[in-house]
Amino acid sequence: MTLLQAIWLGLLQGITEFLPVSSTAHMDIASRLFIGHDVGAAYSAVVQLGPMFAIIYYFRHDLVRYLKGILRTRSPFNIPADDLDARLGWFVLLGFIPLAIFGLLLEHKIDTSFRRLDVVSVALIVLALVMLWAEKTGKRTRTLKDMTLKDSQIIGWAQVLALVPGTSRSGVTITAGLFQNLDREEAARFSFLLSVPVIVAAGLYKLLKAIVFVMKPSHFTPQAAWEMHPYGNGTLGAGELGLFLFSTVIAGIFAYIVVRWFMKYMENHNTYVFIAYRIILGIAVILLLKSGRISNTRSEHPPTTTPLTAFHAPTDGQREPAKWKNKHVTS
Question: Is 85 inside any structural domain?
Fold first, then answer.
């Protein structure tokens, strides 16, 4: 990864992470179009820390109140009617559970068969049409004070659809909130609050895998190692980790800016501009696929040996065959 790639990938991640346009779709499209292959799970794990800290910092006061509410009541079935902080705290926590379960069950498919750009393009367009439906039919008469456990679970289960790349986690949850007649701003607020445990859990889980990859690369099959870091000869050294962290800082800064802007935007605007953008992007991806300008899958040629990180010197028997050295950027 070059410095320029680290900058614009971090910028792209930060801008799209919390908008209803799918950051996964943008990272997949951009990386295949301009790099020739997926950015890799190791990079994704590190760069997601930026948006994670951004959303926690933005909602820091709310999250402290909600956590105190959860500890105060100790059960979602023992909440006083006037304890809004406790209710919202439990709603966020319980709403996270469906995505956590299905995320673990479908992890392999999410990282392989789901990450096809034909799937991404269809998801971009289909959710745009569903968002349009929600905009037309949602009454927008309710606030978070009116939210019930049933509402939060409907939104939480809808969030499972975000496991399909191209749908957008915020897009799905905001749309579900609109269908529950929440005001746009309130739907966006609950969507972002619901993203906190999702991003923290997913980010830390992926980061742990990335750390294991750096420290014990022999634990990974050649295909898994390629998916973790499909650059050069598969090595991950201190220099590239530095670029990853630089990209993370950029992503975090712009994610925070976007969250602040989007919350203000949703006070007086609808989501039509995002609906139109999703449809245009989906059609553009289909045309790029038809023309052969972009690869449909993440990578087609994993290395024949497990890559070793810069922290592990290869032995003679572990050195990568020379025939592979020029095949990493083929897509």
Answer: no
